[in-house]
Amino acid sequence: MERTGQSLFRTVFGMMMSPSATIRDAVRSTHPAFSLGVSSLAFGLFFLQTGLDLYRVGQKGMTFVVFSLVAGLLYGVVIIPLIGLIGYGMLKTVKTEWTLSSAVSSFCLSYSSALVYGAIGLVFSLALGWRTAVAFGVSGVLWAIGPLILSVREMTDNDLRISILLVTLFSSVVLLSWSVFSGL
Protein backbone atom coordinates (compact mmCIF):
# COMPACT_ATOMS: atom_id res chain seq x y z
CA MET A 1 0.00 0.00 0.00
CA GLU A 2 1.69 3.12 -1.20
CA ARG A 3 0.89 6.18 0.78
CA THR A 4 1.77 9.82 0.78
CA GLY A 5 2.07 12.25 3.67
CA GLN A 6 2.41 11.05 7.23
CA SER A 7 3.69 7.71 8.44
CA LEU A 8 1.47 4.69 9.09
CA PHE A 9 2.07 4.89 12.83
CA ARG A 10 1.35 8.60 13.02
CA THR A 11 -1.86 8.35 11.01
CA VAL A 12 -3.30 5.31 12.82
CA PHE A 13 -2.54 6.58 16.31
CA GLY A 14 -3.32 10.15 15.30
CA MET A 15 -6.86 9.09 14.37
CA MET A 16 -7.19 7.68 17.90
CA MET A 17 -5.56 10.49 19.88
CA SER A 18 -6.13 13.64 17.83
CA PRO A 19 -8.57 12.80 15.05
CA SER A 20 -9.44 16.37 14.14
CA ALA A 21 -5.83 17.36 13.45
CA THR A 22 -5.17 14.07 11.66
CA ILE A 23 -8.21 14.52 9.45
CA ARG A 24 -7.05 17.98 8.42
CA ASP A 25 -3.41 16.98 7.95
CA ALA A 26 -3.52 13.45 6.56
CA VAL A 27 -6.85 12.24 5.21
CA ARG A 28 -6.84 14.25 2.03
CA SER A 29 -3.30 13.13 1.20
CA THR A 30 -3.74 9.48 2.16
CA HIS A 31 -3.77 6.97 -0.67
CA PRO A 32 -7.18 5.23 -0.83
CA ALA A 33 -5.54 1.77 -0.72
CA PHE A 34 -3.97 2.63 2.65
CA SER A 35 -7.36 3.69 4.05
CA LEU A 36 -8.99 0.51 2.75
CA GLY A 37 -6.16 -1.50 4.29
CA VAL A 38 -6.77 0.06 7.70
CA SER A 39 -10.51 -0.71 7.71
CA SER A 40 -9.98 -4.15 6.16
CA LEU A 41 -7.41 -5.20 8.75
CA ALA A 42 -9.44 -3.65 11.58
CA PHE A 43 -12.56 -5.64 10.74
CA GLY A 44 -10.56 -8.73 9.79
CA LEU A 45 -9.09 -8.82 13.31
CA PHE A 46 -12.43 -7.98 14.92
CA PHE A 47 -14.31 -10.73 13.10
CA LEU A 48 -11.42 -13.15 13.64
CA GLN A 49 -11.73 -12.59 17.39
CA THR A 50 -15.45 -13.25 17.10
CA GLY A 51 -14.76 -16.54 15.31
CA LEU A 52 -12.14 -17.54 17.89
CA ASP A 53 -14.50 -16.72 20.76
CA LEU A 54 -17.28 -18.83 19.27
CA TYR A 55 -14.80 -21.63 18.58
CA ARG A 56 -13.55 -21.58 22.18
CA VAL A 57 -17.04 -22.02 23.61
CA GLY A 58 -17.79 -24.84 21.17
CA GLN A 59 -20.45 -23.05 19.14
CA LYS A 60 -18.48 -23.01 15.87
CA GLY A 61 -15.72 -24.97 14.20
CA MET A 62 -12.34 -23.90 12.88
CA THR A 63 -13.87 -23.39 9.41
CA PHE A 64 -15.98 -20.59 10.89
CA VAL A 65 -12.84 -18.97 12.34
CA VAL A 66 -11.30 -18.79 8.86
CA PHE A 67 -14.61 -17.63 7.41
CA SER A 68 -14.74 -14.91 10.08
CA LEU A 69 -11.35 -13.58 9.09
CA VAL A 70 -12.24 -13.46 5.39
CA ALA A 71 -15.66 -11.94 6.12
CA GLY A 72 -14.06 -9.24 8.27
CA LEU A 73 -11.45 -8.39 5.64
CA LEU A 74 -14.20 -8.07 3.03
CA TYR A 75 -16.40 -6.09 5.42
CA GLY A 76 -13.64 -3.54 5.90
CA VAL A 77 -12.89 -3.23 2.19
CA VAL A 78 -16.50 -3.27 0.90
CA ILE A 79 -19.04 -2.31 3.58
CA ILE A 80 -17.13 0.50 5.30
CA PRO A 81 -16.33 2.25 1.99
CA LEU A 82 -19.96 1.72 0.97
CA ILE A 83 -21.06 3.44 4.17
CA GLY A 84 -18.60 6.22 3.35
CA LEU A 85 -20.08 6.48 -0.15
CA ILE A 86 -23.62 6.68 1.24
CA GLY A 87 -22.48 9.25 3.80
CA TYR A 88 -20.82 11.28 1.05
CA GLY A 89 -24.02 11.19 -1.00
CA MET A 90 -25.99 12.45 1.99
CA LEU A 91 -23.41 15.14 2.69
CA LYS A 92 -23.53 16.38 -0.91
CA THR A 93 -27.04 17.62 -0.08
CA VAL A 94 -25.45 20.01 2.45
CA LYS A 95 -22.86 21.01 -0.15
CA THR A 96 -19.72 19.39 1.22
CA GLU A 97 -16.60 20.41 -0.64
CA TRP A 98 -14.80 17.14 0.12
CA THR A 99 -14.07 14.73 -2.68
CA LEU A 100 -15.53 11.24 -2.70
CA SER A 101 -12.07 9.76 -2.20
CA SER A 102 -11.36 11.96 0.84
CA ALA A 103 -14.74 11.19 2.38
CA VAL A 104 -14.36 7.42 1.96
CA SER A 105 -10.77 7.61 3.27
CA SER A 106 -11.90 9.47 6.37
CA PHE A 107 -14.58 6.86 7.08
CA CYS A 108 -12.08 4.04 6.65
CA LEU A 109 -9.32 5.71 8.67
CA SER A 110 -11.77 6.42 11.50
CA TYR A 111 -11.53 2.71 12.28
CA SER A 112 -7.84 3.01 13.17
CA SER A 113 -8.79 2.45 16.80
CA ALA A 114 -10.50 -0.80 15.83
CA LEU A 115 -7.26 -1.89 14.15
CA VAL A 116 -5.22 -1.16 17.28
CA TYR A 117 -7.77 -2.76 19.60
CA GLY A 118 -8.09 -5.72 17.23
CA ALA A 119 -4.35 -6.34 17.26
CA ILE A 120 -4.13 -6.09 21.04
CA GLY A 121 -7.22 -8.25 21.46
CA LEU A 122 -5.81 -10.93 19.17
CA VAL A 123 -2.64 -11.06 21.27
CA PHE A 124 -4.71 -11.56 24.44
CA SER A 125 -6.90 -14.10 22.68
CA LEU A 126 -4.01 -16.21 21.39
CA ALA A 127 -1.62 -15.81 24.32
CA LEU A 128 -4.07 -16.09 27.21
CA GLY A 129 -7.07 -17.80 25.63
CA TRP A 130 -9.37 -14.93 26.49
CA ARG A 131 -12.61 -14.26 24.66
CA THR A 132 -11.88 -10.79 23.33
CA ALA A 133 -14.39 -9.86 20.62
CA VAL A 134 -16.55 -7.76 22.91
CA ALA A 135 -13.86 -6.38 25.22
CA PHE A 136 -11.46 -5.38 22.45
CA GLY A 137 -13.35 -5.60 19.15
CA VAL A 138 -16.48 -3.72 20.11
CA SER A 139 -14.43 -1.22 22.14
CA GLY A 140 -12.35 -0.42 19.06
CA VAL A 141 -15.45 0.09 16.94
CA LEU A 142 -17.01 2.29 19.63
CA TRP A 143 -13.80 4.32 19.90
CA ALA A 144 -14.17 5.03 16.16
CA ILE A 145 -17.37 7.00 16.79
CA GLY A 146 -15.41 10.08 17.90
CA PRO A 147 -13.22 10.24 14.78
CA LEU A 148 -16.27 9.54 12.61
CA ILE A 149 -18.16 12.45 14.17
CA LEU A 150 -15.17 14.72 13.64
CA SER A 151 -14.78 13.55 10.04
CA VAL A 152 -18.41 14.24 9.22
CA ARG A 153 -18.26 17.54 11.12
CA GLU A 154 -15.28 18.58 8.98
CA MET A 155 -17.26 17.66 5.86
CA THR A 156 -20.31 19.68 6.96
CA ASP A 157 -18.53 22.86 8.01
CA ASN A 158 -18.90 22.05 11.74
CA ASP A 159 -22.57 21.01 11.76
CA LEU A 160 -22.54 18.81 14.85
CA ARG A 161 -26.24 17.87 14.58
CA ILE A 162 -25.82 16.25 11.16
CA SER A 163 -22.56 14.64 12.28
CA ILE A 164 -24.06 12.99 15.34
CA LEU A 165 -27.17 11.87 13.47
CA LEU A 166 -25.29 10.28 10.55
CA VAL A 167 -22.60 8.68 12.70
CA THR A 168 -25.19 7.25 15.09
CA LEU A 169 -26.99 5.71 12.11
CA PHE A 170 -23.81 4.33 10.51
CA SER A 171 -22.34 3.05 13.78
CA SER A 172 -25.61 1.30 14.58
CA VAL A 173 -25.51 -0.42 11.19
CA VAL A 174 -21.93 -1.60 11.83
CA LEU A 175 -22.67 -2.97 15.30
CA LEU A 176 -25.97 -4.55 14.27
CA SER A 177 -24.41 -6.24 11.26
CA TRP A 178 -21.62 -7.62 13.47
CA SER A 179 -24.25 -8.85 15.92
CA VAL A 180 -26.08 -10.66 13.13
CA PHE A 181 -22.79 -12.12 11.88
CA SER A 182 -21.81 -13.40 15.31
CA GLY A 183 -25.20 -15.08 15.61
CA LEU A 184 -24.75 -17.08 12.38
Structural summary, described in words:
With 184 residues, this protein is mainly α. 79% of the residues lie in helices and 0% in strands. It contains nine helices and no strands. The longest helix has 31 residues, at 62-92. It starts with 7 loop residues before the first helix and ends with a helix.
Structural key phrases:
184 residues; mainly alpha; 9 helices; 0% strand; disordered N terminus
Q: Briefly, what is this?
A:
The chain is mainly α and 184 residues long. It has helices at residues 8-17, 19-26, 32-56, 62-92, 100-109, 112-128, 133-143, 145-155, 160-182.
Report how far the terminal alpha carbons are from each other: 33 Å
Q: Can you count the helices?
A: 9
Please tell me how large the radius of gyration is.
16 Å
Strand tally is 0
Beta content comes to under 5%
- Alpha-beta classification: mainly alpha
Uncertain segments: 1-5
Following the backbone from N to C, one meets helices and strands in this order, namely: HHHHHHHHH
**Percent of residues in helices:** over 70%
Q: Name the average pLDDT.
A: 89
The main sheet comes to: none
Structural topology:
Elements lengths: L7 H10 L1 H8 L5 H25 L5 H31 L7 H10 L2 H17 L4 H11 L1 H11 L4 H23 L2
